[in-house]
Every structure is written in C-alpha cells, then in structure tokens.
Amino acid sequence: MTDTPETKPEDAPKPSGNQLRKMRSASRFFAVQALYQMEVSDQNVEAVRREFEEHRFGEDFGEYDMAEGDTGLFRKLIADAVDNQAQVDQLTDRALVAKWPLGRIDTTLRALFRAAAAELLFGIAPPKVVITEFVDVAKAFHPEGREPKFVNAVLDHMAREAKPEAF
C-alpha cells in the first residue's frame, strides 16, 4: 500500500477566472447581507463574519449561482465598512440628494452603499466593476423596483469622488 501525500491549502486547485468572478460577486452579496444583519440585530462584526462563513457560504441562491464566496473579499468589505464607517457614510451622504440623507435610506440599501463605498475607497477593483456588481446586488434585492437605477446613480457619484482618476 502506498501513502498518499496530504493536500495542503497551497496545493488546492485555484478557481478559474469565471469561478473567481462568481465568488467575488457572492462575497459582495454576502457583505451587504452581513452589514444589514449587524445593523438590525446589533451583532458585532466578528459574530456575523463567523456565522456567514460557517453557515451562509455554500448556500445555493438558485439563479444567482452564488454558492461559494471569496472569504478574503468578504472579510475586507465588512471590516473596511465597519472600521471606517464615518468616512464611508460621509462619501454616501455626499452622493445622496439633500432630502435623502443616509439615515432615511432603506436599511438594505444603506448596507449596500456601505459595502460599495468601502470597496471604492479601500479596494482594488476598478470603479466600473464595483458599480456593476453592486447594481446587480440591488437587482437581487429589488428585482421589480427603481432601486437599481437609484443605486447606479449614487454609486457613480461616489466612484467619481473616490477614484476620479478612473474616469
């Protein structure tokens, strides 16, 4: 009988480009859900992170095919949004019209804007990718509403302020 070598994490197969994109999309979706959950339940970031990584990652979302997530991106988005909430919220407030401050925005959209702002301010993805990804998240939560167009406009404003060199 021959011994089989143990599989080390660095030996695990790397996801393909398309698979990695899906994993990142899932992480953005999960980050919005996690930030929402933190706000409505008063749970801390560590408890919510652990719950998502242990119980939500791997969940099947049907047509969105988001069964796996990029753990690193998920952790970064929620940590950056929480650790820099004042800066994140200020960027969002400046992008909203005066009659609609962040506090008046639906809790789900507020979580979405916080995750997106965190990625725009501290992430490496191009702003147009961030906008497209989070508009898709808005469509998942509001498939029949006007919210995705609203999200697109607000994120465009935020991206132009956060990364003007990209435009």
TrEMBL record:
<comment type="similarity">
    <text>Belongs to the NusB family.</text>
</comment>
<dbReference type="InterPro" id="IPR035926">
    <property type="entry name" value="NusB-like_sf"/>
</dbReference>
<dbReference type="Pfam" id="PF01029">
    <property type="entry name" value="NusB"/>
</dbReference>
<dbReference type="InterPro" id="IPR011605">
    <property type="entry name" value="NusB_fam"/>
</dbReference>
<feature type="domain" description="NusB/RsmB/TIM44">
    <location>
        <begin position="26"/>
        <end position="160"/>
    </location>
</feature>
<keyword id="KW-0889">Transcription antitermination</keyword>
<feature type="region of interest" description="Disordered">
    <location>
        <begin position="1"/>
        <end position="20"/>
    </location>
</feature>
<keyword id="KW-0804">Transcription</keyword>
<dbReference type="GO" id="GO:0031564">
    <property type="term" value="P:transcription antitermination"/>
</dbReference>
<dbReference type="GO" id="GO:0005829">
    <property type="term" value="C:cytosol"/>
</dbReference>
<dbReference type="GO" id="GO:0003723">
    <property type="term" value="F:RNA binding"/>
</dbReference>
<comment type="function">
    <text>Involved in transcription antitermination. Required for transcription of ribosomal RNA (rRNA) genes. Binds specifically to the boxA antiterminator sequence of the ribosomal RNA (rrn) operons.</text>
</comment>
<keyword id="KW-0694">RNA-binding</keyword>
<keyword id="KW-0805">Transcription regulation</keyword>
<protein>
    <recommendedName>
        <fullName>Transcription antitermination protein NusB</fullName>
    </recommendedName>
</protein>
<feature type="compositionally biased region" description="Basic and acidic residues">
    <location>
        <begin position="1"/>
        <end position="13"/>
    </location>
</feature>
<dbReference type="GO" id="GO:0006353">
    <property type="term" value="P:DNA-templated transcription termination"/>
</dbReference>
<dbReference type="InterPro" id="IPR006027">
    <property type="entry name" value="NusB_RsmB_TIM44"/>
</dbReference>
